[in-house]
Amino acid sequence: MFHSLMRPEEVDTLRRLYGQSFYLIGAYSPREGRVVTLAESIASSRHQQNTEQFRTEAEELIEKDRADHGERLGQAVQKTFPEADIFINIDHKHIFSKKRNA
Fold first, then answer.
1. Cβ contact 66:75 at 8 Å
2. 31-67: pLDDT as tens digits
3. Which of 29, 47, 71, 93 has its CA 20 to 30 A from that of 37?
4. Residue (of 88, 85, 86, 87) closest to 101 by Cα position
5. Domain hosting residue 29, numbered range
6. Residue 74 phi, psi dihedral angles, 5° rounding
7. Are residues 85 and 100 in contact, defined by beta-carbon separation less than 8 angstroms?
8. For residues 67-78, b (16+ Cβ closer than 10 Å) or e, as one string?
9. Overall number of domains in the chain
């Protein structure tokens, strides 16, 4: 099992290997939810209770991942995400799927 795929080529390889048995699930959380979760994670890793003091750091990390720097470092998540067969908004538990070509 993979936790995440970072490049469309990875998706293509898995689709070739597993054919119709491969399904890619794209999990999405709105930016605010990602900031809060990441700030909580940073606070926890530093044994701190006040997550708000880590909000700026969390926002900077999210922006760094979103920026084009990722492709240069081998990631292209923004191009990979739309390749998913099923999309889940993890904040609201909504599931959207797209029809795959047979």
1. no
2. 898 899 999 999 999 999 999 999 999 999 888 776 6
3. 71
4. 85
5. 8-97
6. 100, 5
7. yes
8. eeebeeeebbbe
9. 1
CB 5 within 8 A of CB 11: yes
What is the rounded average pLDDT of the residues 9-31? 93
What's the token pair of residue 26? 């794209």
Pick the range with the lowest mean pLDDT from 21-35, 55-69, 84-98: 84-98
Which of these, 18, 90, 29, 88, lies nearest to 62 by C-alpha position? Answer: 29
* In a domain? residue 2: no
Domain assignment present for 28: yes
Report the alpha-carbon distance of residue 11 to residue 102 in Å, rounded: 17
Residue among 90, 68, 96, 86 nearest 22 (CA) = 86
User: Does residue 83 lie in a domain region?
Assistant: yes
- What residues contact residue 85 under an 8 Å CB cut-off, 6+ apart? 23, 24, 25, 97, 98, 100
